[in-house]
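Morning, I've got a small favour to ask if you have a moment. I'm working through a protein record and want to make sense of it properly. The fold is given in discrete form, as structure tokens running alongside the sequence. Can you walk me through what the tokens say about the fold? Thanks so much in advance, here it is:
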Amino acid sequence: MTSTKPPQTRESGGSPAAALTTGTSDPRTLIMRNLRQSGIYVAFVVIVALFAILTDGVSLSPGNITNIVLQYSYILVLAIGMVILIIGGHIDLSVGSVVALTGAVSAVLVIQQGLPWWVGVVAAIAVGLAVGAWHGFWVAYIGMPAFIVTLAGMLLFRGLTLQVLDNISLSPFPAEYQKVANGFLNGLLGGQGYDAFTLIIGAVAVAGIAVSGYRTRAARIGYQQSVESFPLFVLRILLIGAVIMYFAWQLAHARGLPIVLIILAILVIVYGLVTRRTVFGRQVYAIGGNLSAAQLSGVKVKSVNFWMFVNMGFLAGVAGVIYSSRSNGAQPAAGNMFELDAIAAAFIGGAAVAGGVGTVVGAMVGGLIMAVMSNGMQLMGIDQSVQSVIKGLVLLFAVAFDIYNKRRVGANR
């Protein structure tokens, strides 16, 4: 009598493959997969350490870390929407112009017409939603390529911004509006020379990441999918936790927890759950991974595409509020090149050019890499032209690594 044992998932063993992951036996494939999953975090830590050395520790000072959060928060908000579009096989070249337009509408209502500050916030987000619906209509229901639609939108909404502002800048916003991007929560729980509330929030964030990561890993093992070894998983969580707590410690010794960081954290948590735990999120991945298969599986492709662009418009409206609050006004040239920074954040964070691959957290790390690089080079006094060259090369190599990784994994299957 022959007995059949169910397949077992191993986390460690006598082979190089077992030490890295499960579900396959080719060490090269496993290494490439683990590099793709965890390499971005290692790269982030290395870049932070590099600029800390090059700037004699100034880049890691409490004040500078706070400035990084405040100065690049709107790019990270845009990166959330951009990575979802890229996962679905699209792109949006108009988000910089939409940021300018939404900020301009808010400024006209609040500064010129004297309406309450929250009216400007609501109006900016409403304009962003309308823009997203406009793009979604042309892409989803007319069938035009997103590249062309949003390129036209870049020109269209930049022109509308100039008309709304009548080619002049408007400032200042009331104090309540400025607090959106410049306000802090400090002293809620006390602390001797530091803000205890900021440290508690940092610890809660680390605990949430650890629990979420463990549950995701356990679910993948249950479905016989490839995962990293448990020691490597623990090392990654410890590394992420150490980075988060270090930044929380620095913020606690500066001005406390920025309000904009709370907004960003909420968005990351919500969209992380949307992309990983909801039907809509799975459909976005399905469309970007294999459009024909998604259609045959009953996915309502037009509807999903439409709401992806509506979501991008919503986040562009949020970014418009944050940016106008940060700059304390609205300018005709606001948002220039923001779309390229958001796209770069998504690709550096692991999104695939062909779609179907990427994560919200990865886009955040990619955006932080760009932020740390830009901030570090500014502290070093590097010319703006050289900064552009370096950031362009980083983006190029990130996409090249994605293509190389995909070819290696495909060749080893």
About this structure: The mean pLDDT is 85. The chain has one domain: 26-186+255-411.
